[in-house]
UniProtKB/TrEMBL annotation:
This is APC4 protein. Pfam families: WD40_APC4_C-half (PF23405). Coiled coil: none annotated. GO terms for cellular component: anaphase-promoting complex; nuclear periphery. It comes from Alectura lathami (Australian brush turkey). InterPro entries: APC4, APC4_C. Keywords: Cell cycle, Cell division, Mitosis, Ubl conjugation pathway.
Length: 234
């Protein structure tokens, strides 16, 4: 070790491990612990060496503001406690805040209808992901809710659009339609159906009347075409 190293260690010991007579009546060691580690202990005991808040601009600002000092929105400060204690206190407050909305929302949600989209085998193998690209759109003008999705097992070149009225009391039938792209971009009816087959990469509603889809050529070759298509919902 160099003399500089020894001096550094000596300074550290001098600063943090001096005897502290004011702590003699407390449990534990009679010297200050390292000031960072005390915040990380998972204990409810007070800090051995609490921070000095004198000159802290935030505390000065709070103490001079009547509204902020009494505001229930500010989380209380515990200068004598570790971060673990503060974390537990905050978690309890957050749990209380979320419990009431969870109860109210949970009691208000009910199943409007059930529609079978596909069936999977009952094998012990993990079920593959068949439902892809779910995108929701709410048409506030006509009070209709749409869901865009693809089912991988049925066809890569097909997207499904599910329609549901937002007013569950109205007896309007649910609608589901599948749009298949396939080889719709072929130049002529004589062109091979396998030569220009497209699958859907992504699909979103552009507005209340238009659906935007991103298509790619399914043929395994370099330079695959990408197509951005705007489809009228009608």
């Amino acid at each position: 070790m160099t003399q500089k190293d020894i001096t550094f260690v000596a300074d550290f010991l001098t600063e943090h491990f001096n005897e502290a007579p004011e702590l003699y009546n407390r449990k534990g060691k009679y010297f200050n612990v390292e000031r960072v580690g005390q915040y990380l202990k998972d204990e409810d005991d007070d800090l051995v060496s609490p921070p000095n808040t004198e000159g802290n601009q935030w505390f000065h600002f709070l103490n001079n503001s009547t509204h902020l000092k009494e505001s229930p929105l500010l989380f209380p400060y515990y200068p004598e406690k570790s971060l673990h204690f503060v974390k537990r206190q905050m978690e309890e407050v957050i749990d209380q805040c979320l419990q009431k909305p969870a109860d109210v929302i949970g009691k208000s949600v009910h199943q409007a209808f059930c529609m079978s989209l596909y069936k999977t085998s009952q094998s012990e193998d993990s079920t593959p992901q068949l439902f892809k690209l779910p995108f929701l759109w709410n048409n506030k003008t006509s009070n209709v809710h749409y869901v865009l999705f693809t089912i991988l097992e049925s066809s890569f070149s097909k997207i499904h659009i599910l329609r549901r009225h937002t007013d569950t009391s109205r007896s309007i039938s649910n609608g589901i339609v599948a749009v298949e792209f396939g080889n719709f971009l072929n130049n002529s009816i004589h062109e091979s159906s396998d030569s220009r087959c497209y699958s859907c990469l992504d699909a979103h509603f552009y507005d209340d009347e238009t659906v935007t889809v991103v298509l790619k050529e399914s043929v395994e070759q370099e330079g695959k075409e990408r197509v951005l298509a705007q489809l009228p919902l009608s």
